[in-house]
Amino acid sequence: xxxxxxxxxxxxxxxxxxxxxxxEGEWEALTARVLARIDEKQAFFKxxxxxxxxxxxxxxxxxMDSFRLLLNKREITLxxxxxxxxxxxxxxxxxxxxxxxxxxxxxxxxxxxxxxxxGAPGLFVNQTMRNGRTVRYEGxxxxxxxxNAGAQIIAGGSVIVWGKLRGIVHAGALGDETAxxxxxxLAPTQLRIAGYITVSPEDKRRKPRPxxxxxxxxxxxxxxxxx
Amino acid sequence: xxxxxxxxxxGKGGVxxxxxxxxxxxxxxxxxxxxxxxxxDIGLRNLDLILGVENxxxxxxxxxxxxxxxxxxxxVKHKQFPNLSIIPAAQDRDKSAISPTQMVAIVNDLxxxxxxxxxDSPAGIERGFxxxxxxxxxxxxxxxxxxxxxxxxxxxxxxxxxANPRPPARLxxxxxKAEMIKRGDMLTPDDVFDMLSIPLIGIIPEDEAVLVAGNxxxxxLGSRAGHAFKTIARRLMGEEIPLKxxxxxxxxxxxxxxxxxxx
Lengths: 227, 263
What we know:
The complex is a heterodimer. By secondary structure, chain A is α/β, with parallel strands linked by helices. Chain A has 5 helices and 15 strands. In chain A, helix 1 runs parallel beside helix 3. By secondary structure, chain B is of the alpha/beta class. Chain B has a single domain, classed as Rossmann fold (3-Layer(aba) Sandwich). Chain B is globular, with a radius of gyration of 18 Å. The termini of chain B are far apart. The interface between A and B is medium-sized, with 18 and 15 residues.
């Protein structure tokens, strides 16, 4: 959503909402207008996470604090303040706020990630995958949980498991040999990357450790992964 | 106040669902609870045998569903435990004879008269399983310390996790042989817990007394296994009884080790 007043703009970004304030004009008046806009659409803003981009405007600690407090009253969390002003950055850090959205190199004009960072789309599975569950996805797959024996992941891209990997996994299923598989405990029933296939070695009482599997010199190898 | 509805299931057959249902029900009755147990294993009924009431069955679950009798008429009271009621399955029908909705209706009718309703699920993950878990407020997953049983338990837990509403599930590890574990020939409760990561409500030791009692149709709560069933009954009633050598989450242990080992 884009607002009507050009002294500020509010739009949705991946991290929540981005409020861009003009570097011109008086801070008090400007923030009051932003709050008035928020109050018009309380239901939309309630519970939101907001990043604030003030351009080159210097914002003093007490100014930032009072605005943050007014946002908090409306159940809105201010988590980042972006500015090229040293004063503002110091105020933000002092308040424990982030000073960048993604990288520390600005690039704030377009909050979208650059094309080289974009890569393939990803799927996030926020749950242990139990026996009988299959996930098929053209991009990368991340699992926050275990992948139990009998569960299966078939991904066009790479597979990251923040947990135990015991099931069957096929990364680079569309032919990408640069795809990899990593897990906090990598012990899949069967692991495939593109056209290569391997099984876990059978040392039962080994110590679990994070490992990454990838294709090297025409075969799949696993090496230790230090996340 | 209605009864607490607990379904005993496992995925795999032969792990001891019916034995657990019978003994757990008897244990709850011995703790002065009124219990109805329902045999949902239509076509392969066993619960009546284990509880020794086979010769007193007049009507069964499907008779109730199909209106041939009142629910009251199908209830068989246990001789040794008057507060234990059994609703037997039909033997000459199959799982499709009733629906999950009908099962819920029967449980609702029973509910005001009991403290606990324990449902003995058939093996498998099809209609019979769905009938048995439809009314459940809590599910007890029975498994044995062997890979195939654990694998099937995992499948069932996954199905329950996808259900809406999702009933809480706890694990019973049945037929644990201490000597085999000592020799390293059997999965330990730790291993099982590591694979399934759901809360454990109890461990039942392998005990011939259970087999003997089952054949006699008279639960033996004085046996070693009987004590374990009583402990599970008390935990089900909300008592906090620590597990001996309670397993701790494997992944958590490993993660803390990974991040500097604050254990």
